Amino acid sequence: MKNSKLNLNGIELVCFDLDDTLIRGIHSMMYLAILVHKFPEFMRFEQMKDRFPSWLRSESAKLNLAKGLEISVIENRFGKHLKELRNIKETVDKLHEKGIKCAVISTGPEPVVATGCKRWGMDACAGSKCEIEDGRLTGRYIEHMSERGKGAALADICRQLGTTAQNTIAVGDGFSDIELFEACKISVALNPFDENVSKQTDYTFFTDDLMSVFFPQ
To answer: How high is the pLDDT of residue 194?
Structure first.
């Protein structure tokens, strides 16, 4: 169904993806490279990613570019560099008024994910865990989300917030979100980059305003 009104009856949690769902254009890993003035190096890694032994090795090399980056810089420059969907916080606030909690599950670096969640008033988040020492990134992962799996992250968040996947809406844009789409009661493709993603979901929306997805005028 495209742009049909979502039924929020019985829903206790909305779980969002981050990259290309709530933020557009510059994604979370690219953001870190920009902050340390290593965007050209980042793009070289993107162009040669097929030469790495694995996708995870490629992601680890990109994170290493941000070695030494202060967490406070990630937090303070989020709104300056990243293009956010309109009315994210306003939508979260309105969902809260209905007793519905909100979370983000992303493969992006957890310090970036957590910054967005705090900015928007989310109730929980999960991202790829990064090693931090003295308030700075070491450039190494503790655990990448691809190793843990978004389904396992969702189960942890549901336990934390006292709900289940059967009372949850999953919102994402790509194939990495299919695990969540399959687990949750309702699945929403938001600005999907591939029509085959839409085929995996209950609803599809193309919009730059999150409010129009949940509370259309």
So the answer is: 86
Q: How far, in Å, CA of 197 to CA of 176, rounded?
A: 10
Residue-wise burial string across 178-212, b where 16 or more C-beta atoms lie within 10 A, e elsewhere:
bbbbebbbbbbbbbbeeeebbebbbbbbeeeebbb
Domains contained in the chain, CATH given: 13-24+84-214 (3.40.50.1000)
Angle between helices 55-64 and 39-47 (to 10 degrees): 170
| Tens-digit pLDDT profile for residues 155-174 | 999 999 999 999 999 999 98
Cβ of 58: how many Cβ atoms within 10 Å?
A: 16
At 65, the amino acid letter reads L
Report the run of H or E that residue 131 belongs to, with start and end: strand 124-133
The number of angstroms, rounded, from the C-alpha of 69 to the middle of its chain's C-alpha atoms is 21
- Mean pLDDT value across residues 61-88: 96
Handedness of CA 135, 141, 142, 145 (dihedral sign): positive
Instruction: State CA 185 to chain mean position distance.
Output: 19
Q: State how far the Cα of 5 lies from the Cα of 150, in Å rounded to an integer.
A: 26
